[in-house]
Amino acid sequence: MRPRAFVDSYTGNALGQWADLTKIQTPVVAAVNGHALGGGCELAMMCDIIVAGDDAVFGQPEISLGTIPGCGGTQRLTRAVGKSKAMELILTGDKITAQQAKELGLVSHVYPKNELVDKAMAMAKKIASLSKPIVQIAKEAVNVAFESSLAEGVRFERRMFHATFGTQDRREGMTAFEEKRKPTWKQL
User: Fold this and answer.
1) Interval 97-115: pLDDT, tens
2) Residue 64 falls inside a structural domain
3) 100 and which of 69, 84, 96, 122 could share a cystine (Cβ 3.0–4.6 Å)?
4) Which pLDDT band, with edges at 50, 70 and 90, does 2 fall under?
5) Do 73 and 93 meet the contact criterion of CB atoms below 8 Å apart?
6) Angle subtended by helix axes 168-178 and 132-147, to nearest 10
7) In whole angstroms, how far apart are CA 124 and each of 25, 31, 138?
8) What are phi and psi of 143, to 5 degrees?
């Protein structure tokens, strides 16, 4: 990126395609080992769930390069850890450990690095075992909460809750609960 000029970056929409990850309807689980700095941290934050190996390190050190995060780091980090901590990390370029990231709410779980991929895959498989359309609706509702006011989010959630009553999977899920058995999802 060093030789790029403003006009090249702006007119070429540098890094603009990265946001496509946030448009995937299927939940995306990030398993972070090692360093997730700058774009790596931003890429992880574009995912729906972040789990980390115990040796992972997170940060937005762009300030030390004379620039700022360019793929949502100032926005997503602030929403994940709060304004004060995001300001500290972005304005100093300091890094945080996986455990600190968990305590701040940036990551969901910290696992020994040799177990990380298996744990992430187990979580992904659990999510994949559920009703695909209902999982997609739930993901969309959480994303709306992330990007709107509480009143707008609650209104959207209620509409989506009502919409689930038009699916076979909602009927199957509630019937299975009443019959004390596992549901057989039909994905419709």
Assistant:
1) 999 999 999 999 999 999 9
2) yes
3) 96
4) low
5) no
6) 110
7) 14, 11, 15
8) -65, -35
